[in-house]
Amino acid sequence: MNLWQVVLSKKAVKQTKTLPKVVRENLYALIRQIEIYGPVRGDWPNYSKLSPGRHHCHIKKGRPTYVAVWEVRNRTIQLVEVTYAGTHEKAPY
Q: CA 38, CA 75: separation in Å to the nearest integer?
């Protein structure tokens, strides 16, 4: 089984540092699942495909709601980049 490589954009790295601990742990769990099972994560809350190769889901419900957005950068070498991790209100969709 080939694992997907998941990287965080510079912006996502900065955002991750400011996330509450439980949200950060949920993000790491999501990243691990993407590495193992691929970028389509229909088993996460409010998962949806934003456009071809671009996905999002909630990593913590409630107020505020936190979301993650990721993009498939290269399907051949199985590379995914997390481009956003933060509150729903500021999500770039």
A: 10
The C-alpha atoms of residue 1 and residue 20 are separated, in whole angstroms, by: 33
- CATH for 65: 3.30.2310.20
Residues of the chain with pLDDT under 50: none
Please count the structural domains in the chain: 1
Task: Name the percent of the chain in helix, strand, coil, to the closest 5.
Answer: 30, 35, 35
Q: Contact 55/47 with Cβ under 8 angstroms?
A: yes
Domain range for 37 is: 5-90
pTM score of the predicted model: 0.93
CA distance 25 to 8: 15
- The model's pLDDT over 22-48, given as tens digits with 9 standing for 90+, comes to 999 999 999 999 999 999 999 999 999
b (16+ CB within 10 A) / e for 29-50: ebbebbeeeebebeebeeeeee
